[in-house]
């Protein structure tokens, strides 16, 4: 990730949730095309399914801060 991209990311992360979501959606659309209208509903169902599976296994769920750091480390190596 370039210094400019990192700076933009850091600034975006300081925004309120709704503004970050709008930016993320616009960025995804710019590389993936139009968003499938059923995407949000499908993703919510998938998230609920994964949550139910994780809770049933008795394993603790990862904190968002840990997941975010893992994702950022992976992106930094690309």
Structural features, described:
The chain has 78 residues and is mainly alpha-helical. Helices cover 76% and strands 0% of the residues. The chain contains four helices and no strands. It has helices spanning 3-13, 17-32, 39-57, 64-76. It starts with a helix and ends with a helix. The relative contact order is 0.06. The mean pLDDT is 90.
Percentage beta strand:
under 5%
Structural class: mainly alpha
Regions with little confidence, pLDDT below 50 for 5+ residues: none
| Radius of gyration (Å) | 15 Å
Q: Output the number of helix runs.
A: 4
Measured distance between first and last alpha carbons: 8 Å
Largest sheet properties: none
Q: Report the helical percentage.
A: over 70%
Tell how many strands the DSSP assignment holds.
0
The backbone outline, from C-alpha atoms, is globular
The helix-strand sequence is HHHH
Short key terms for the protein model shown above:
78 residues; mainly alpha; globular
Topology readout:
Layout: H1 3-13, H2 17-32, H3 39-57, H4 64-76
Describe the structure concisely for a colleague:
With 78 residues, the protein is mainly α.
């Amino acid at each position: 990730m370039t210094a400019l991209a990192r700076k933009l990311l850091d600034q975006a992360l300081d925004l309120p949730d709704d503004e970050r979501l709008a930016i993320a959606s616009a960025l995804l659309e710019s590389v993936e095309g139009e968003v499938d209208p059923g995407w949000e509903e499908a993703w919510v169902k998938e998230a609920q399914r994964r949550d139910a599976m994780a809770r049933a296994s008795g394993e603790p769920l990862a904190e968002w801060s840990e997941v975010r750091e893992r994702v950022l480390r992976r992106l930094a190596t690309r």
